[in-house]
Amino acid sequence: MWIYEDAILDSRRFEDASSSVAVMSYIRGAWPLLGGRSGVCRCLHRNQLSSSSSSVVLQSRCTDVFQNLALEDWIDANVDLQQRSVLLLWRNHPAVVIGRHQNPWTECDLTAVRRMGIPLARRRSGGGTVFHDLGNLNLTFFTSKKAYDRKRNLKVITDALRSTAPGLDVHATDRLDILLNGRYKISGTASRLSRKSSYHHCTLLHSADRSALSTVLRPSCPGIVSNATPSVPSPVANLLDHAPMLQWEELVDVLVRQYNTEFGFSAVSAFVDPADESAFPGISRAAAELRSWDWTFGKTPKFSVQTVLDLTDKESAVRSSAHLNMEVKHGFVNSCKLFVPDDWLPPHLSAALANALVGERFCRRRASVCVAAVVCDSGDLRGRLRRLSDAVLSVMS
């Protein structure tokens, strides 16, 4: 298994980290000493391995957001965190990640996300929406629930930054973000607590694409009323803009050292491959669930859409508008009402359009098929029905 225990690493044996066969064979034997609960790995004799260490530091080789989020969940479910603490370091190709209780339509521009080919992922922890790319480092601190201490985890980061770049003015806020120069957010934080275990993860902006970040982190849909957890917008900055000499490898190294110093560990950083099903049984299924529409959109808390639709005919400049009231539950349209002036469109046509959407996903592509099934014989009314349909679809992303 691609999990490394700091006290059992033999540096001579792992000089060639690419020798995955040897690493897999060796680490599988170490797995029982991590307190693993899967029972799938053969065990080496205990006298061949030291079980004295209480910490593991892992770096993911994968840059797929769904695999890395699945790895978090896998560690939380399969490692005995009463016996071992784990620090996981990971980064992703561009992705938008929303919190467990958030609404994707209010958190990001879904049209821009699709146009840019950026995946949208819903994690299992709470907190706000973040943009990931290869210039953003993610840190996940796994511990027992009793040892859970987000302030201390953030102290690892701020102390590490001060030690490697003394000119940086960084501190953790009451909201458990990390600010640079008292203003710019360089780290956001979220966590998940189970009955006995916990994990706390946070971002760290080293050299992220701030232009892409600002493009995708804005609302898609007007008029949403929801109790979903909203993100709190903040000005952001990259560490590299204020500490140009701070290279990625140095940042990772100093964080690992400070983690050991803060908690009194002696963990060595090593690599894992979360895409390896033989190493992490069941992880492919977990990643597939995170990729699914049912999880990403279907887990959105119930919300309503209350907005005015502009029905103005651009050619004739005749102005008109309609009111849309829609209830959405589990990502599906639960009810829909359209209030359109009777002299603009007969009530039976607007009602037919509204009824066609009920039971369908709150999704422009799927909804467009439904509204296309609503037909009208009159040429003039057909054009108005089309404008109304387009206006309704424009609300969806």
Strand content: 15-25%
Main sheet makeup: 6 strands, mixed
Terminus-to-terminus distance? 41 Å
Overall, the morphology is elongated
Instruction: Write out the strand line-up for the largest beta sheet, numbering strands in chain order.
Output: 10-11-6-2-1-13
- Rounded Rg: 25 Å
Number of strands: 16
Low-confidence stretches: 1-52
Average pLDDT, all residues = 86
How would you summarize what this structure contains?
The protein has 397 residues and is of the alpha+beta class. Helix content is 32%, strand content 22%. Helix 12 packs antiparallel against helix 13 (379-395).
Which SSEs are present, and which pair or pack?
Elements: H1 20-30, E1 55-60, H2 65-78, E2 85-90, E3 95-98, H3 104-107, H4 110-115, E4 120-122, E5 130-132, E6 136-144, H5 150-164, E7 170-172, E8 178-180, E9 184-187, E10 189-193, E11 197-205, H6 210-216, E12 224-226, H7 239-242, H8 248-263, E13 269-272, H9 283-291, H10 293-296, E14 303-310, E15 321-329, E16 332-339, H11 347-357, H12 364-372, H13 379-395
Parallel strand pairs: 1-2, 1-13, 3-4
Antiparallel strand pairs: 2-6, 3-5, 6-11, 7-8, 8-9, 10-11, 12-14, 14-15, 15-16
Helix pairs in contact: 2-9, 5-8, 12-13
